[in-house]
């Protein structure tokens, strides 16, 4: 006996025939919508030659000198293994979500850091903020790379120049490191602060000529040798970037991979040295007493400089930037942790050699990579080879990070001003030359004082402020739900609830706390025993404010440059540019409670 279709749970034929066209219609509608989105966001934009070019560029930018000279020391000073708890926590609740957000923002809108704010025009000022910060960083970061290049050239001798006290730059007080031990140094002075070793004098007197300056008020003329090294660095950057991502994407094959090869080789050599295991134990020793005293430390993975937005804007529209974010942030973390073994195996050797504690030789920053580590290398058989290897690593670590910063400036401004895009090579040269001119201040006798000032103020509180405003602009004003729909259009799936909650609540609150804390706990500038005058701190805050003030000033300018009633102007300011017709119709999404409650 035949059974009716409805009783067999089979859709009747006339209904089945109507569903097929409906599904096909939805698919076609979605495809048309995707084509319109791609066309609206510039589908003819230049793209990376290969996916690996993008990944290496992002990793090369994120993994920089700080991974080697700052993380291991902070980990050691703040509880060793215990430090990894807040580090990973901050990474998960702020670092990764913001990294993912910037990659997705750049990839979907296919614009640089300024023009990407077509999604919410009133926030365009933060785009100029991060571009200016990236430019400021280039002023002094290139100088550190120039130091590395100077050390590299100086290493190409049979006997390393920081080995003895019989050089023209040495003082009468220079002391042979072979006779220095705990009793010679005396109580209260750590070996890392002992300024009359050959290595310390080579850095401060032979390279910086700091002894010829009385302070930041007495800079002197640029040193010709460091200026030449700076010229070489700037030319490397120019020829790496002048053809856009097609050229820079190939340079990173060397600059992003070389540090890992060298780190591995240095680790193998380091663990064979006497005392190395004690250094590694000190690095990993868990001390929760120190952990309790730890101030909140926010490690930027590179978010906030406009670099990730710029790099991602050259991706293919359907690239899986979620996977890229997880991969590159994980590589960055592992690199920081791994470099600690390389550094502390050698610090253990130095402590054993001079019969002092690890704490006496442990230091961070330039003192670590230009004094302590080179001195340790100079005592090894084949010291010239190890020195050349080490400074090649520093050079490559710096170059690709500097490339990222300069690309953020170039992409951000060429997308905003089309005339610059038509003359990209000339504009790239102009940008490189501008960074060179300002960097000359940092290669004078007192240049280290200028560099210290820029390092603290150019990208300190201001970069945290920039990321905070960026997170608020995307998650609250543009809308985290709309942002999630953009990501779904690119990759076929929406971000999970965890990412949406971080973008809307956790990351902005965390950044707000850090911005307030960094402002309130800010102290006056010091370099070793030299205390900067008050006017230098005022100049520093002027540098910081010069970038941050773009946010309110541009918002005010945007509001008054629009026509219409007060309400209409607000609507135009916070509505994506391609939806401005909705403002005229009175249909402003942000004027509805549902927009602000959406997750």
From TrEMBL:
UniProt-listed GO biological process terms: amino acid transport; dopamine uptake involved in synaptic transmission
UniProt subcellular location: Cell membrane
Keywords: Cell membrane, Disulfide bond, Glycoprotein, Membrane, Metal-binding, Neurotransmitter transport, Sodium, Symport, Transmembrane, Transmembrane helix, Transport
InterPro entries in alphabetical order: Na/ntran_symport, SNS_sf
CC per GO annotation: axon; neuronal cell body membrane; presynaptic membrane
Cysteine pairings via disulfide bonds: 165-174
PROSITE patterns given in the database record: NA_NEUROTRAN_SYMP_1 (PS00610), NA_NEUROTRAN_SYMP_2 (PS00754), NA_NEUROTRAN_SYMP_3 (PS50267)
Topological relation to the membrane, as annotated: Multi-pass membrane protein
Cited PANTHER family: SODIUM-DEPENDENT NORADRENALINE TRANSPORTER (PTHR11616:SF320), SODIUM/CHLORIDE DEPENDENT TRANSPORTER (PTHR11616)
Protein name: Transporter
Natural source organism: Takifugu rubripes (Japanese pufferfish)
Lineage: Eukaryota, Metazoa, Chordata, Craniata, Vertebrata
Encoding gene per record: slc6a2
């Amino acid at each position: 006996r035949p059974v009716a279709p409805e009783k067999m749970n089979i859709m009747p034929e006339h209904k089945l025939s109507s569903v097929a066209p409906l599904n096909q219609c939805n698919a076609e509608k979605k495809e048309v919508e995707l084509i319109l989105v791609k066309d609206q966001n510039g589908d003819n934009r230049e793209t990376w030659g290969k996916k690996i070019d993008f990944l290496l560029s992002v990793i090369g930018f994120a993994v920089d000198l700080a991974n080697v000279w700052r993380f291991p020391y902070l980990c050691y000073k703040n509880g060793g293994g215990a430090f990894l708890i807040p580090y990973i926590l901050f990474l998960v609740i702020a670092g990764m979500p913001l990294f993912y957000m910037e990659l997705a923002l750049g990839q979907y809108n296919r614009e640089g850091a300024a023009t990407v704010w077509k999604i919410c025009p009133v926030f365009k000022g933060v785009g100029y903020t991060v571009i200016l910060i990236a430019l400021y960083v280039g002023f002094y970061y290139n100088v550190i790379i120039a130091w590395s290049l100077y050390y590299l050239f100086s290493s190409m001798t049979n006997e390393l120049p920081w080995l003895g006290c019989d050089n023209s730059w040495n003082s009468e007080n220079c002391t042979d490191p072979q006779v220095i031990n705990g009793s010679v140094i005396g109580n209260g002075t750590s070996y890392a602060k002992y300024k009359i070793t050959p290595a310390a004098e080579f850095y401060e007197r032979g390279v910086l000529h700091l002894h010829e300056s009385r302070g930041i008020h007495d800079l002197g003329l640029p040193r010709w040798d460091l200026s030449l090294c700076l010229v070489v660095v700037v030319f490397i950057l120019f020829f790496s970037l002048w053809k856009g991502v097609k050229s820079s994407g190939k340079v990173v094959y060397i600059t992003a991979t070389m540090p890992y090869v060298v780190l591995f080789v240095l680790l193998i050599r380091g663990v064979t040295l006497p005392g190395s295991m004690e250094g590694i134990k000190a690095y990993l020793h868990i001390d929760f007493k120190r952990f309790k005293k730890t101030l909140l430390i926010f490690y930027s993975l590179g978010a906030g400089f406009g670099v990730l937005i710029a790099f991602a804007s050259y991706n293919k529209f359907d690239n899986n930037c979620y996977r890229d974010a997880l991969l590159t942030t994980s590589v960055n973390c592992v690199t920081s942790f791994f470099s600690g073994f390389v550094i502390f195996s050698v610090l253990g050797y130095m402590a054993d050699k001079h019969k002092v504690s690890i704490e006496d030789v442990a230091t961070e920053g330039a003192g670590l990579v230009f004094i302590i580590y080179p001195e340790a290398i100079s005592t090894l058989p084949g010291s010239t080879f190890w020195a050349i290897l080490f400074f090649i690593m520093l050079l490559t670590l710096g170059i690709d990070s500097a490339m990222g910063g300069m690309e953020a400036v170039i992409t951000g401004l060429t997308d905003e001003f089309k005339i610059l895009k038509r003359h990209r090579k000339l504009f790239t040269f102009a940008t490189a030359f501008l960074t060179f001119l300002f960097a000359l201040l940092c290669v004078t006798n007192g240049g280290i004082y200028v560099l210290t000032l820029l390092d603290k103020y150019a990208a300190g509180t201001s970069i945290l402020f920039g990321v905070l405003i960026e997170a608020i602009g995307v998650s609250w004003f543009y809308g985290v739900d709309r942002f999630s729909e953009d990501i779904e259009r690119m990759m076929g799936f929406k971000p999970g609830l965890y990412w949406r909650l971080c973008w809307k609540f956790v990351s902005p609150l965390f950044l707000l706390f850090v911005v307030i804390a960094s402002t309130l706990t800010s102290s006056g500038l010091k370099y070793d025993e030299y205390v900067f005058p008050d006017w230098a701190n005022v100049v520093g805050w002027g540098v910081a404010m010069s970038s941050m003030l773009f946010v309110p000033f541009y918002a005010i300018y945007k509001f008054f440059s629009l026509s219409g009633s007060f309400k209409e102007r607000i609507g135009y300011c916070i509505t994506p540019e391609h939806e401005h017709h909705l403002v005229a119709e009175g249909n402003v999404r942000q004027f509805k409670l549902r927009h602000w409650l959406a997750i």
